[in-house]
Structure formats: C-alpha cells, structure tokens
Amino acid sequence: MQLTNRSKQVSNKEMTLMERAYIPAIATGLAITLKHFFAKKVTIQYPEVKRYLGPVFRGRHILKRDAEGRERCTACGLCAVACPAEAISMVAAEREKGEETLYREEKYAAVYEVNMLRCIFCGLCEEACPKQAVYLRHDEFIPVFNDRNQVIWGKDLLVEDMNNRYTREAWTKEEAHILDAKRANGEVTNVVPRAIP
Amino acid sequence: MELTEFIIKTITILVVFVLTLVIAMYSTWGERKVAGFIQDRMGPNRAGPGGLLQPLADAGKMFFKEDFIPALANKWLFISGPSLAMLTALLASAVIPFGSTFRYGGVEVVLQGVESNIGILYVFGVVALGVYGIMIGGWASNNKFSLLGAIRAASQNISYEVAMGLSLIAILMMSSSLSLGDIVAQQHGGNWNIFYQPLGFIIFLTCSFAECNRVPFDLPECETELVGGYHTEYGSMKLGFYLFAEYINMFVSSAIISVLYFGGYNYPGMDWVYNQLTASLGTTTGHNIATLIGTGVFFGKALFFIFFYMWVRWTLPRFRYDQLMNLGWKKLIPLAIFNIIITGASVLFLKPFITALLK
C-alpha cells in the first residue's frame, strides 16, 4: 500500500565508483548549505519587531468604553461565572445622578479585578459578556511581573483610554472568519480597524 | 645587534601569539554565526553590534563558573590536560610565515615567529603532541566515557598522521626543502602547489579535519555515544581551554594548508603591485605596504579555510568509527603512496621531458 508518493524504494545495489569516492556527494551537500547561507533568514527580531498575530489573538484584557466614552460594563458578573480559572472579581455599584457621562448603564463595576496569574487567556469572559464590555486585546501581552503587586490588574489598567482607543479589524469571530477566508482567496481586503464593536 | 634581534624576535612572537588568540577567539563567534546562517537563523547578535562581544561574554561566563575537579580524578594530570592542549596548539603557530619581510631602518624583519629550516617537521611534531593533552585529560578524569573519548582521539590522530605525512612527502619532493618560508617562496608567480598536487591536497585536507577532531571526524566528543567524550568531566575555564585549543588548531591547520598548497602570502599580479608601490612610494615604504598586502592575502586564505571547516561541520554527518578507520588506513594511505609514486615519476621523467620540449 502506498500512502504518499514521497516514499523511495530501498536498494542494496553496489555503489558506483563515483558514489564511493564520496567527494561529489560532499560537493552537492556543500552547495545546498551554501545556498542556505545566503538565503533570507526567517528570524523575527522579537522585542524590536513584532509579528502580527491576527485579529482575534487573545492577549491582555481591556474594559471597553462606548462611542461617548462611557464604560460599557454593568457588573452583571457573567464573565466571573464563565471564567474557568476564577480570575475575575468585581464589586457592583449604582450609578448616581450626574454620572451618566461616566457609565452607560444604571449599574456599574466600582471594582473590577483580573488576577493575571490565574488567567489562562481562554476568552470565555469575552464570549460571556452581554454588553460587549470585556475583550482580550490582539495587540498587547501582559508584561513580565517583577512584583506581587503587579499581578492583580484593577480598573486603572483595564479601562480603555479614550485618547488611545483600542481598534481592531474584526470584533467577532464571524467577522474574522470572513476576513480570513477573503485573504486566503487572495482578495484585496482593505478593512479600517475600528474602535467600536 | 644581538639585542635588537632578540627584541625584534620577541615582538614578532608576541604579535603572532596575540593574533592567533584573537583569531581563535573570533572563530568561536564565526562558528556560531556560520551555523546560524546555514540553518537560516541569525546567530548571536545581542552582545554588541552583530554579536561581536559574544566571545568576551562566553569567556566571562567560563571564568566565573565553578572550577570543579572530580573527587577521584588525578588532580595534577586533570589540570595539566587542558594546559597541554592549549600549549601545543599555540606552539605550532610559531613557524608559519605570515608575510615576506618588513624593512625598518635598514633592518630586514621576517614576518615569521621562528625561521627554521625544518619548519614543517616542527609543526608535525607539535601537532602530534596535541594528543597528549586530550589523552591525559581523558585518563585523569577517572571516567570511562572520558577515557573512551581520549583513546578514540589518540588512535584517530595516529592513524591520520600517517596519511597526512605521506601526502606531505609529495610536496617535499617538489620543493626539496622542509622550511615553510622556502616552500612559500617557491610558489611565487602562480606556481601554487594545489595545481600540481590536487590529490595530495584532498588527502591533506581530510587528515587535517581528523587531526583537529572536527566534524565529520569528531568522534572523540561524540555526544550520542560518549556523553561529552574526553571533556565530559571538565567545566569552567578548563573546558574553555579544550574548546579554545580546538579553534587554535583549526587556525593553525588552515594557515598550514594555505602555506603548503595555496602559496601563502603570494597572490596573482604580486610583482606588478610590488613594482608600482616601490616606484611610487620608494623602496622602503613601498616594500612594507606590499608585504602588508601579502599578509592580508595570507589571512584571507587562512580565514577562508576556517570558514570551510565550519561549512563542512554544518553539512556532513559524523562518521562511524569503523568507517573512520577504513577511510584512514584503506583509502587515504594507499592513495597517498600512489600520489608519492606519481609525483616521483613526474619529477624524474615528465619534468625533464617538458623542459626539453619547451626549449
């Protein structure tokens, strides 16, 4: 039975004088390695050059704001329930009068913490969220910890900065799949990354 | 006069010594770069521009490691192993002619550590001593793998020295001199020995691979069979010396190959360059600059062969031990003897015939 067409019949025949001299074979080998010597290197110089990991890579978390800059999170706790590593905890609070520009819904998360040592970056919080508030960024990682205090990330680190909004080519898996399929077909896709889901 | 000669010799020897060490040091960097490039990687590029400080970082690491001696090892022999390896490796570079002469204040300085009329014999003697470093180190480690590696190294070096010496005899028959300076001078004007001795060159090259314990003949440190070979028990700078000695040997044998077969400091169009320089700059400065160009060409040749060693290392797989021995005794020695006969016949019959024909 033939599984691939790469298989080669083993033969035990006597080597010719050319083959036994071994030098032509060495020359062929040296030519191959010399070709690789001058070939383009595949290395990506990581800290200086970063590779694009795709529109749905799961990096660090972000708590999104809406177009008017209001926090989307309503502290329903579904992300914490969905989290298999139990990394998320939050304290809910009621929106006061005059805070309508800060929070979108009448209830908001006064405290929202992610334990980055527990988090496994599975993205289930992102999927559970009914308000499209929590996302895993595709472009940033969690930096290396030097101290215990850096492990638990609070709202100061998680909430989106309106001056430097997080943009993305695709906000849902469906969008990303369509984009991938188009690119695989070689179609020209000119998607402007946008900030709002 | 005695004193000036002594001072000049001291300076030349120091320069040769330092040059050998620096080239060996940067060979370690070069080896890793070449390995990387052949495997489509970049090689070391973090320590300094292009990774040029990597040898210093490696040496620093080696120095600061624990200098460990196994409890049941023979302490003095254990220490003398790497020292001997380093010593014998460095000794051989003394007789290599790096260039023609350097004129300064009416004194003619030969760019060669020691001008000896038995230069090539000296090189052979010292290189043969190199196996003591490995053998003593391997035995003193009190480890069966080290001992096996050392025995392999010893038998391999002895086997290949025979073929190497025989391939060399053909050269000596042509030059009728044992002095490396004379052999280089005779290759002046494009008469490189490689054109007369291609078979001898291939035998010599193969044997020098085996003498340096380089791939494809690096069985003494065959890690799949012998853990680390003769330096299994070594660490810290003692291991560093063993590895460093290998690179020095590599440089010395590259230099010897370029001296014996590729005309040393000779290059095509050398006389024309010499005449131009002496005509425009005067006999002293012009002569010195011409010598420096020749030295540069010599180092270019030597560095190419170092590169060739690395190139082969990252191309060929290791031989099996019986294949190694078969190649040495059953192929290379008969070929070398055949080469001697052919050369002798050519020198005796063909050369007078051709000269008579040309007349």
UniProtKB/TrEMBL annotation, chain A:
Keywords, sorted A to Z: 4Fe-4S, Cell membrane, Iron, Iron-sulfur, Membrane, Metal-binding, NAD, Quinone, Repeat, Translocase, Ubiquinone
GO biological process: aerobic respiration
Cellular component, GO annotation: plasma membrane
Cofactor note: Binds 2 [4Fe-4S] clusters per subunit.
Residues that bind [4Fe-4S] cluster 1: C73, C76, C79, C129
Stored Gene3D superfamilies: 3.30.70.3270
MF (Gene Ontology): 4 iron, 4 sulfur cluster binding; iron ion binding; NADH dehydrogenase (quinone) (non-electrogenic) activity; quinone binding
Cellular location(s): Cell membrane
Residues bound to [4Fe-4S] cluster 2: C83, C119, C122, C125
Catalytic activity: a quinone + NADH + 5 H(+)(in) = a quinol + NAD(+) + 4 H(+)(out)
Membrane topology (UniProt): Peripheral membrane protein
Entry superkingdom: Bacteria
EC assignment: 7.1.1.-
Cofactor: [4Fe-4S] cluster
Domain 4Fe-4S ferredoxin-type: 64-93, 110-139
The UniProt record lists the keyword Iron-sulfur: yes
Protein task: NDH-1 shuttles electrons from NADH, via FMN and iron-sulfur (Fe-S) centers, to quinones in the respiratory chain. The immediate electron acceptor for the enzyme in this species is believed to be ubiquinone. Couples the redox reaction to proton translocation (for every two electrons transferred, four hydrogen ions are translocated across the cytoplasmic membrane), and thus conserves the redox energy in a proton gradient.
Family per similarity comment: Belongs to the complex I 23 kDa subunit family.
Subunit structure: NDH-1 is composed of 14 different subunits. Subunits NuoA, H, J, K, L, M, N constitute the membrane sector of the complex.
Protein name according to UniProt: NADH-quinone oxidoreductase subunit I
This protein's encoding gene: nuoI
